[in-house]
């Protein structure tokens, strides 16, 4: 069944990048094929869940053979649109923003932070890696000029909503929100919330109750 003929669960879509990264690692290691059991062990995801996720996209493998790595790699690149470079901007260059710019998605050559913005005069003009922090006054012009599609939001919580409104007004339809604030955006905008406090609390809970 083609992916445009069925509604793919959000949980499945969120797992696709994990599958892609693991398959890329296998490919780089010279592996030709992999079973759902091996995927399960490598990703710590139940094999039944993996088979169900893959079933939404048709026949990706063969029973008794497993999955062809080259085929899976091509499939995930196409599905995740990884044949094109996605340009990302950081808004808010404090400690976390600085760390993310330094990291700069080096594990994936199809996503790259190309710009960083802040409103503090103490931060504007600072060079982090190969990126110079720019003023928010130039935000809209630089987005268009550099072809930026996604923004990572790492501003203080109290200004997150206001800044997100400016981001979406500039035409950005994808935000990775690292602030605790749950921002309200237009329906066409995709927001993924990364609350480090909640993630850590969840980790500790599962550690104590496994």
Automatic annotation (TrEMBL):
InterPro entries, from UniProt? Answer: CoA-bd, NAD(P)-bd_dom_sf, Rex_bacilli-type, Rex_DNA-bd_C_dom, Tscrpt_rep_Rex, WH-like_DNA-bd_sf, WH_DNA-bd_sf
Could you tell me which residues form the DNA-binding region? 18-57
For whether the record's keyword set contains Transcription, the answer is yes
Spell out the molecular function terms from Gene Ontology: DNA binding; DNA-binding transcription factor activity
Q: Name one GO cellular component term.
A: cytoplasm
The record's Gene Ontology biological-process terms are: negative regulation of DNA-templated transcription; response to redox state
Please state the protein's primary subcellular location: cytoplasm
Positions of the CoA-binding domain: 81-182
In terms of domain of life, where is this protein from?
Bacteria
Instruction: Give the Gene3D superfamilies listed for this entry.
Output: NAD(P)-binding Rossmann-like Domain, Winged helix-like DNA-binding domain superfamily/Winged helix DNA-binding domain
Keywords (alphabetical) are:
Cytoplasm, DNA-binding, NAD, Repressor, Transcription, Transcription regulation
Residues the record lists as binding NAD(+): 92-97
Where is this protein localized, as stated in its record? Cytoplasm
Q: How does it assemble?
A: Homodimer.
Which PANTHER family does UniProt cross-reference here? REDOX-SENSING TRANSCRIPTIONAL REPRESSOR REX, REDOX-SENSING TRANSCRIPTIONAL REPRESSOR REX 1
Q: What does this protein do?
A: Modulates transcription in response to changes in cellular NADH/NAD(+) redox state.
HAMAP family, per the entry: Rex
Q: Its family?
A: Belongs to the transcriptional regulatory Rex family.
Full protein name = Redox-sensing transcriptional repressor Rex
The species this protein belongs to is: Mammaliicoccus stepanovicii
């Amino acid at each position: 069944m083609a992916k445009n003929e069925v509604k793919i669960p959000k949980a499945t879509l969120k797992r696709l990048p994990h599958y892609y990264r693991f398959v890329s690692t296998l490919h780089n290691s010279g592996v030709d094929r992999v079973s759902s059991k091996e995927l399960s062990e490598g990703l710590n995801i139940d094999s039944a869940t993996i088979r169900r996720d893959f079933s939404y996209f048709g026949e990706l493998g063969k029973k008794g053979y497993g999955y062809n790595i080259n085929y899976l790699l091509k499939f995930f690149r196409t599905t995740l649109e990884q044949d094109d470079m996605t340009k990302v901007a950081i808004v808010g260059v404090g400690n976390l923003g600085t760390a993310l710019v330094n990291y700069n998605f080096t594990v994936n050559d199809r996503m790259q932070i190309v710009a960083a913005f802040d409103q503090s005069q103490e931060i504007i003009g600072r060079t982090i890696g190969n990126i110079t922090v720019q003023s928010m006054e130039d935000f809209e012009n630089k987005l268009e000029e550099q072809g930026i599609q996604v923004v990572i939001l790492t501003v203080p919580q109290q200004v997150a909503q206001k800044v997100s409104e400016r981001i979406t007004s500039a035409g950005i339809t994808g935000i990775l929100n690292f602030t605790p604030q749950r921002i309200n955006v237009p329906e066409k905008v995709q927001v993924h919330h990364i609350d480090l406090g909640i993630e850590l609390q969840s980790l500790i809970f599962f550690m104590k109750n496994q």
